[in-house]
Design brief:
- The chain is of the alpha/beta class and about 425 residues long.
- The chain contains 14 helices and 13 strands.
- A six-stranded mixed sheet has the order 4-5-13-10-11-12, with helices on both faces. A four-stranded parallel sheet has the order 8-7-6-9, with helices on both faces.
- Helix 4 packs across helix 8 (about 215-230) and helix 9 (about 250-260) packs across helix 11.
- The chain starts with a strand and ends with a helix.
- The structure holds ligand F0G.
- Ligand F0G binds near residues 244, 246, 351 and 353.
Length: about 425
């Protein structure tokens, strides 16, 4: 395993505290050399998955550490695992119909221990924090990263600090962050201000930064794709759609697919569809202009998880889109909430930002860019209960408080209508 700067090729110590190259400022990446064929890796991963179903040991059950040869070569005693991963792949006819494709699957990362995909990156980042002897860890967050950091830092016994934009974090996420024990600082500013502050704190105070600029976060998040491919018996789908904010996950997906193909786990690369909210869509704007320049905006969207105007993992995400012949799309908040309503009503449910993936598939299918007969997987990144206040689908189902007699009368009218 090597930690390298992809921009100037500098090789760094694998125990570095840094996320960026000191020579050129590029975001570092972790490289692997598994020294096994694709068939050997598949057999190893499949064997562990079969065993995981029959045991209670966290490490053996983890859907992240199952792929450890392509994640981090830590020893067992260093690993901080809940466990995480093993999230379901779901098919619902109503959602496929809404999206306009025949075969739509949803990989639901809201089934992770703290209710979002962030746990996959955090198990690796906190393991690395423990390996390098970090005195404290910190992040900026729109809520999910902070909830996950707080839980994993507590498990690791490392003090944690989070910076969140005041008044802009969904209630469920803030409650988790505080309850798991992170020192939670609300900042007068938006996510982009919080991230600048977190990077500053890391540079000046040596606190270990665990935002997705941290290369080890990316290694963990790659396992969303590895696990999905494994669940599909290593038959790659045509498209994988995901919501995009700070672009860490887009970067992780691109890296995972390049590695899965490069190491022989799959024989072709699915196309990535990264979906932003229209009010927070600098990456989609730049894509439309062939990434001629980097763009930042003042972000505004009701999908608070992806309310980000100056994404940190820009260059990595550009590489991910290029490597997968990917597409970047933006969808309005109304489109996001329309998709969420369909996802919720079929009993699956997700937080608003997650529904952007399905809204994006619908937009591309409507334009004929995704064909009806293509196999599409939309990743749902967070659990419905993360943002209970967003309630777009519950308003018309709830009534004011009733007496039991009124309730019975209402039920009678509804059932026999
Ligand atoms: N979906 C959810 C539910 C998220 O919480 C996030 C990011 C994303 C999608 C976008 O992923 O940033 O890697 O492009 N949430 C971060 C946080 C920013 O602080 O929790 P991304």
């Amino acid at each position: 395993m090597t930690v390298r700067c992809p921009d100037c090729s500098a090789v760094l110590d694998a125990f570095t505290l840094q996320s960026t190259c000191s020579a050129c400022g590029g975001l570092l990446v972790v490289e692997h050399d598994p020294a096994k064929s694709g068939g050997e890796l598949r057999a190893l991963f499949d064997g562990r998955a079969a065993k995981a179903a029959r045991c209670v040991d966290a490490l053996e059950r983890s859907g992240v550490w199952r792929f450890r040869e392509l994640v981090l070569d830590a020893n067992d005693l260093e690993i901080v695992s809940h466990p995480e991963g093993n999230t379901p792949v779901l098919a619902r006819e109503a959602v496929a119909k809404f999206a306009g494709v025949d075969a739509l699957l949803m990989k639901h990362e809201g089934h992770n221990p703290t209710g979002s995909f962030k746990d996959r990156g955090m198990t690796v980042a906190l393991t690395q924090a423990r390996r390098i002897g970090a005195r404290a860890v910190a992040c900026a967050s729109t809520g999910n990263t902070s909830a996950s950091l707080s839980a994993y830092a507590s498990q690791a016994g490392i003090p944690s600090f989070v910076f969140v934009p005041e008044g802009r974090v969904a209630a469920g996420k803030l409650a988790q962050t505080v309850a798991y024990g992170a020192r939670t600082l609300q900042i007068r500013g938006d996510f982009d201000d919080c991230l600048r502050l977190a990077r500053d704190a890391s540079d000046k105070l040596g606190v270990y930064l665990v935002n997705s600029v941290n290369p080890f976060r990316i290694e963990g998040q790659k396992t969303i794709v590895f696990e999905l491919l494994q669940q599909l018996e290593w038959n790659a789908p045509d498209w994988i759609a995901l919501p995009a904010g700070n672009l860490g996950n887009t970067s992780a997906f691109g890296k995972a697919l390049a590695e899965a193909f490069g190491f022989g786990l799959i024989d072709r690369i699915p196309r990535l569809l990264a979906v932003q909210a229209a009010g927070a869509a600098p990456f989609a704007q730049a894509y439309a202009d062939h990434f001629a320049r980097r763009i930042s905006v003042r972000a505004e969207t009701r999908a608070t998880a992806i309310r980000i105007g100056d994404p940190a993992s820009w260059d990595r995400a550009v590489r991910a889109i290029a490597a997968t012949n990917g597409v970047v799309e933006s969808v309005t908040d109304d489109e996001i909430f329309a998709a969420k309503a369909v996802i919720d009503r079929c009993g699956v449910g997700c937080e608003p930002a997650s529904a952007a993936s399905v809204a994006g598939v619908r937009a591309l299918a409507a334009r004929g860019l995704i064909r009806r007969d293509e196999r599409v997987v939309a990743v749902l990144t967070g659990h419905l209960l993360k943002d209970p206040g967003s309630g777009a689908t519950s308003d018309d189902q709830s009534s004011g408080a009733l007496t039991p007699d009124e309730a019975l009368a209402l039920l009678e009218r509804a059932v026999f209508a």
